[in-house]
Specification:
By secondary structure, the protein is mostly helical. It contains five helices and no strands.
């Protein structure tokens, strides 16, 4: 699974809207759409924030592993 597909799956698994994640990352819904379709990359700070929010490792978000490892 590609990293941007993982971003969308994580959000949808928790029944969140793009606007919910936009608030968390202090951006707008259109930007989240670009991240989730792979049209634009996020900065590492945003990936870290999402990893903490979803309680999964960065490796999982990046698609390097298929089994989510909890951070805490």
């Amino acid at each position: 699974m590609r990293y941007f597909e993982r971003l969308k799956d994580l959000r949808e698994d928790r029944e969140l809207k793009q606007s919910d994640i936009a608030k968390l990352l202090e951006t707008n819904q259109q930007q989240i759409s670009k991240y989730e379709t792979g049209k634009q990359m996020m900065g590492i700070d945003k990936y870290i924030k999402l990893a903490k929010f979803y309680n999964v490792s960065l490796d999982y978000i990046a698609g390097l592993v298929d089994v989510p490892k909890k951070l805490y």
